[in-house]
Amino acid sequence: MSTTSTYTHTKVFKLESGKKLRKIELAYQTYGKLNAKKDNVIWACHALTANADVLDWWKGLFGNNDLFNPEEHFIICANVLSSHYGSTNPLSVNPTTGLPYYLAFPEVTIRDMVAAHRLLAAHLGIEEIKVLIGGSLGGQQAVEWAIEDSSAIQNLILVATNAVHSPWGIAFNESQRLAISSDRSFYANKPDGGLKGLKTARSIALLSYRSYDAYTATQLESVNEKTDSFRASSYQNYQGEKLCKRFNAYSYWYLSKAMDSHNVGRNRSSITDALASIKANTLVIGIENDVLFPISEQQFLSKHIPEAEFFSVKSAYGHDGFLIETDVLTNVIGNFLKESTNKKIIKLHKTA
Questions:
Q1: Which of 124, 169, 267, 348 has the greatest number of CB atoms lying within 10 Å of its CB?
Q2: pTM over 0.85
Q3: pLDDT digits (tens, 9 = 90+) for 138-156
Q4: 22 in a known ligand binding site
Q5: Domain limit, last residue, from 231, 259, 287
Q6: Which residues on adjacent β-strands are paired with residue 184?
Q7: From the candidates 84, 165, 304, 319, which is the catalytic residue?
Q8: Which of 136, 208, 211, 251 is catalytic?
């Protein structure tokens, strides 16, 4: 059973920057039913251009016959602020002007996204999350949430993510924004503004999502005579056009800014102290040849989150492996959760 809903927070929502949104809307989907004890909640945080339909974009890990299934769990995924899949974003109407925000939309941070999701959790009467999981930008949300509300998260799964976005990652995002801003239509304040730039931005992003080996495996030419019209060229064009059909340049711009903002040490004593405050049973998973979120970043997380477990995944797909290697993830996460349950039972016996 799947339900698509929108939560409207009618009070002023204050952003980390100090700017305010008069109200916010969050599109979210739920699957399954909340049990009587309210202890079967699985909350998935989505990545950059995904939506709230986690059973669609994380197939193999989430689904009727998968590790996280609606028959056993109450699964929730909420669309983040700035994304145009139903939540408040740059194409939403600015109540002050009666027109879409476009570039007048205030910048939203990862911490703002988490604050909004915590409002949704309170609205749904959820006080405890059995598993909070996210990869990439979703993982950035998950680690922030586990710091902000450490007592509410029982198990934390962080996949291909980090504690602070790197200069390398920011440089990739800035290059994409330069591509978008080079498209003059981006400043025309129209829903389809900046699409040519967005196509180029997506092409740049793909180089950080995949790997040399992935392109060799899927885009290598079968003949030696070609001098143009290469498969890799067609692939870059196709993927850029594909995103333009389902997304907009303004949301992409703001979401990339949000990713850049990620730093768990901001306005806290330090990055390591922030990670040390996490109380959840934590599993950190890295992809060995991830160019965008190198495995050293996941090793840093596991080193500084108390008693965190670490697992590395071999994949030809680079960063995108976190969405593709679901058989491995199912095995690793499933074993981790079984061990977590056993530890909990042992603790209960010791205190009884």
A1: 169
A2: yes
A3: 999 999 999 999 899 999 9
A4: no
A5: 259
A6: none
A7: 319
A8: 136
